Each structure stands twice: as C-alpha cells, then as structure tokens.
C-alpha cells in the first residue's frame, strides 16, 4: 500500500516537472521569438489575401518582408517561403517538422481521402508512398517509356491532321499515357468513360464556386450543420462528388481485376502487376493499390498538360530558341528519324529547354501546402505549430540573383561554357523533401520526350492575321488555381519539311 502511494507521488512529480518544463519551453519560444515579418494584419480578420495570381503578389511582398513571410487569415497562420534556401532548410534539413499537410475538410467530404498527396504525415501516408516509390522511382519508371514514346507519336500524328487543337491533343497524350500504363486501357477520345470520371471528379474538387466550400474549409465544424440549412445545396454537391470519386477509384481497377480473374484479354499494366503479384492481399492493401493507381492518373494528367502548354507558348514567343533546337536535333538525328530516350545525353539544348520550361512558369506556382507539425524557430522567428506553409515556387524561379532577367525564356541558363547541360541545380517545380512529387521521373520523361519529338518535326511560331501580321501573345496570361495553365493563345504549328511529314506518318 505504502509502496503504491510512493510510486503515485513519484509519477505525479515527474508529470508535473515534465509538464512545467514543456509549458515553459512553449512560452519561452513563443515570447522570445516573433513571427516572421509580413504585412500588417487586421484585427480578427487577418490579412487581405490576394486571389488573382497570388504568387506574384507574394513575390512582390517577399521583396519587402524577406524569404520567410508571415500572414494570417482569421486564426490561421500562413508562412510563405520564397527562396530555395529557406525551402531546403525547412523541408529537407528539418523534414520531420514540415512533412505534414494542412487538414482541408472538403477533401474528405468529397471522397478524396484516398489521395496520399493531401494526407497528413502518418503511417497511412507512408504505406501509400512506399507503393509509389516502388513503382515510380527512376528505375521503375523506365518501364513506362515505350508507352510514353508511342503516345507522343500519336500526338505528332494528331497535330499533323489537326494542328489547331493542341490543348485537346496534349490532354489526350497525358491521359492516354496514364490510362495505358496504369490500367492497360487505350483511350480513343477525351469522352472516354474513365477519363471523364477523373476530369469531372477533379473539376468538382478544384471548383470554388459551390456554396459553403470556403466556409467549411475555414470553419470545419460547420460541415455538421450545413446539410440542415434550408436552400443549401452543399450536401447534394458533396454526395455527388463522393459518389463520382468512388467510381473513379474503383471502376477501372475492378474492370482489370475482372479481366484477370476471368482470363479475358488485358494489356499488361501496373494494375495487372499489382493484382498478379498479390492474390492474397488484405482489403486494406488493395485499397492502397487502387488509390495509387487512381492518384497517379489524377496527379499526372493536368500537371504535364500545363508544362507542355508553357513549352508551346515559349516556342511561339522565342523563335531563336526553336531555331537552335532544330539545329541540335538535326545534328544528332540527321533529319532521318524521331528522337528516342537514348538520344537524350546528346541533346543538351533540348534538356535546357525542358529545364527552362519548368523554371519559367512553375506548374504549381505555390506548390502543395504543407503544415508545421510543431513550433519551430527559424532564423530567430517563430513558425507556430499548425501554420500552413506555402512554397512560392514562382518567387524562387524569378530570383534575379540566380536567374538574371527571370521573365525571359532563356535555355542558355542551363548550358555550360563548353556547351554541356548544367544539371547542377534542382528542378524545384517538383517540390522538396519527403513530400516531393512521387511521379517526377515519369513526368520528366513524358515532358522531355514531347518537347524533343515536337521540335524534331514541327515549327512552332506566332499565328498571323489575314494581313500577314503576327498576332501578339501576352508574355504572362495564366489561370489561377493549384495548377496554373497558360490561357488560350494563338499559335501556328507546321511540319518542318516533307521528310518530317513522312517521319510523322511512319511513326508507331
Ligand atoms: C510536370 C508534371 C508534374 C509536376 C510539375 C508535379 C509537381 C508536384 C508538386 C509540386 C508536388 C508537391 C510536392 C511538395 O509538397 O513538395 C507534387 C506531389 C505529387 N505528385 Fe507530382 N507533379 C507532376 C507530375 C506527376 C506525375 C506524372 C505523378 C504520378 C505518376 C505525380 C504524382 C504526385 C504525387 C503522388 C504527389 C504527392 C506526394 C506526397 O504528398 O507524398 N506527379 N507534384
């Protein structure tokens, strides 16, 4: 009895001391260290946040307040990182604190909780990420190359037939690659059932016009009440999205599973590989596999489309870059064949164009938001636990000290004095640290192969009006949102020669 009382007293004292120590540490950290500099916030409401191309405003603000800036929206702390050094310090050197994502209630409500890209840093996320690593790391991604090249050739043929609809052709390219590599499914048009499922589901998620969405994200507890409010179509919107997302996740997978089980004809793909190697897996593991397959398509489609449309825009604006690329390709291919991945080391200028495309207008200009898992002090400033961290890739890409005249499209930035590719810098458009893009090897191959192949056989220029004058293209006219695309612009795309036409027609 006495012994138990004694033990209880010791444990209570330990807990008290530990608790006091922790409390003191939190108070000391919070009192001694101010938040990073930033524009003055209004009481209660916080800062007025930009909604139109916010990355440009944040970049301007970062020149006043520095590369680590603090903002507030109601009670939410927001930290904007605008330099590669700060992003590397936090995401890579302190990766345990910055690998989390903020909780966005609409993601769960709309059925997207399968998406490891939005998951909190957790054991579940690790399970998904392991499967991604196994099947999308550079060596594993080599398996997708034949399909990537074949689909690029389909794009060339489509452009030869109908050069005016490049956005649709490029969408077909990325959708076609993902559907075939993931599910062995050959799409014939953008009206394909599975493609429509993904695009509708993604559209619903990224849409910001539905009632209640913003309110629910800012005040999560409201989701329990919104469905009862008269006239609010919130619940039916959310239910429709969840049903659609569930179909997107299961329909193509179940189709492959059925084909494999009944011995029907089925092209080999990642789904068959996962099914055939794992006949006795748990339903939990099967859910991870399904999720990885669906997410690869959802994450890899629109991102690559944005990069490729930026490429077309840059070519139309910078004819001397097209001329130099043509010269390099002709030197290596002799105008007699289309490029393959084996040609890549001999084509440094094409690689420099690819790197400049990824720098000039980063596909996700503010990255995918992170969350601080703990209080942290960086350069004397407090980054509070739960703060949302935005990675201002736009600011990093337009850092004048690293990229003089950053608004100019200049592949030469990545060419050394002796004409070699300077690959020493990172392609930060793919992110940083533990949450870096899981499909970057595949994206790199698709975007590179498309750039090299299109330039091998096509000339891309500004379009001309009826009087023969070039139609001007604005240098910067991009959409808002997580993934930013060039807004529609006029261009002209023609085969370079009759030999080019033959090469395109003969391609397989
Ligand atoms: C040009 C094309 C692409 C770009 C620019 C891009 C960029 C990004 C970025 C910036 C992130 C967030 C990284 C961070 O938080 O630091 C990300 C995450 C991700 N990407 Fe990509 N991506 C592309 C293509 C792809 C493809 C083809 C796939 C799949 C095959 C893919 C799968 C993913 C996944 C699964 C994540 C979530 C990673 C995580 O949170 O663990 N991406 N991507």
Automatic annotation (TrEMBL):
Keywords: Heme, Iron, Metal-binding, Monooxygenase, Oxidoreductase. Pfam families: p450. InterPro entries: Cyt_P450, Cyt_P450_CS, Cyt_P450_E_grp-I, Cyt_P450_sf, Cytochrome_P450_fung. Pathway: Secondary metabolite biosynthesis. This is Cytochrome P450. Its cofactor is heme. The keyword Protease does not apply. The keyword Iron applies. It comes from the Eukaryota. Belongs to the cytochrome P450 family.
